[in-house]
Amino acid sequence: MMQVPRIRSLVCYAGLALSLGFHSVSYAVGSLSTPLYQAQNTDLTGRNFEGANLSLADFTHSKLSGASFKNANLDYTNLSLADLSHTDLTNTSLRLALIEFTNLSSAKGLSVDQLKEACITEIEPEAAAQLGFDLMSYQPPSGCLLWEHVPRG
Questions:
Q1: N or C: the chain end with fewer CB closer than 10 Å?
Q2: Cα–Cα distances in angstroms (integers) from residue 54 to residues 44, 88, 131, in the given order
Q3: 86-143 residue pLDDT tens
Q4: What is the pLDDT of residues 58-95, one digit of tens each?
Q5: ∠ at Cα 19 (18, 24), nearest 5°?
Q6: To the nearest 5 percent, what fractions of the chain are helix, strand and coil?
Q7: CA-to-CA distance for 115 and 107, rounded, in angstroms?
Q8: Closest-CA residue to 49 (of 35, 37, 32)
Q9: Is 100 within 8 Å of 123 (Cβ atoms)?
């Protein structure tokens, strides 16, 4: 498992502090002890992540179809280009998670409220229609500026 360079983590936390306001730094500092889960380009089809704390994880280009993230924490997680089709996202926290060309078709338990807390740059029209999510009227949270400074995809 490859470790993310320390400088990348520091940039993330500095970006969070500036974009969310310094009152949110306590949350970010608490996350410093959270292990980063690196799973880029990995096949995790059908895996069970129920209740897991995967904040700051990187699932770029990963196959997660049929996996369960029920009651999991995916805050600040990179889900760009990931396949989350038929995945259980019931009560999953997606606060400032990057959703960019992510396959969310037939995702179970996913709500518009969850998506409003995420950083969405592009979403499949089919998945958006299933949820009643309108990307054109979507206002990303201010903390999404964090992703402008993090290499991805």
A1: N
A2: 14, 15, 24
A3: 999 999 999 999 999 999 999 999 999 999 999 999 988 888 888 899 988 999 999 9
A4: 999 999 999 999 999 999 999 999 999 999 999 999 99
A5: 80
A6: 30, 15, 50
A7: 12
A8: 37
A9: no
Q: Where are the beta strands (DSSP E) in the chain?
A: 98-102, 119-123
Is there a contact between 108 and 88 (Cβ–Cβ < 8 Å)?
yes
Cβ atoms of 70 and 88 within 8 Å: the answer is yes
**What would you report as the CA-atom Rg of the chain, rounded to the nearest whole angstrom?**
14
Nearest of 105, 23, 36 to residue 74 by alpha carbon: 36
Q: Which two tokens stand for residue 76?
A: 């600040």
CA distance 153 to 146: 15
Structure pTM?
0.76
Q: Which of 86, 81, 51 is nearest to 65 (CA)?
A: 86
Amino acid identity of 152?
R
Residue pair 67/48 in contact (Cβ under 8 Å)? The answer is yes
CA dist., res. 131 & res. 5, Å (int): 37
